[in-house]
Prior knowledge:
Elements: H1 2-7, H2 21-46, H3 57-67, H4 76-97, H5 101-118, H6 125-135, H7 138-141, H8 149-167
Amino acid sequence: MMGNFFRKMAGTTKSPPGVGLGEIFWSWLGAFLGIGAVALINYNFVERTDLVLLIGSYGASAVLIYGAIKSPLAQPRNLVGGHLISALIGVAVYKLLFPHLWLAAALAVSLSIAVMHATKTLHPPGGATALIYVTGSQKIHHLGFFYAIMPVGAGVLIMLMVALLINNLSPRRQYPEFWL
């Protein structure tokens, strides 16, 4: 019985083939322009306020929406829904469990995964979005539920617009695979 358990960890398939230089270029260009747009707005306009626009989970979203554009996890429904749901969960859990940050962190991420599964919006960076709120600075905590709108909603929409433009410039790429 234990042998079967450990045999599962060997995997069942081989590593997928690499991608060509064209695919690498388009992925690079999308990530550069998407993160660049959000960072430019953050550092030139938003940083002067008490708001923030650039959060770490966008880096992982960039990998998906510019580098793995056919993945179900990279589609607009998952990108937007996964981040927004997780942001709201992160804020709510933090507010309920503030003195117990270890518990808030674990519950925010695990609950985000469960709700994303239930709503068909699974987007792995969403878990990071929830965790960023729980572990964030006073500047992030001061946002409260507005965190779901700014930075999360605004940043995700900027990155989605760039993904729609850049991913469809190449005749070999099409994004999205589905909306809803």
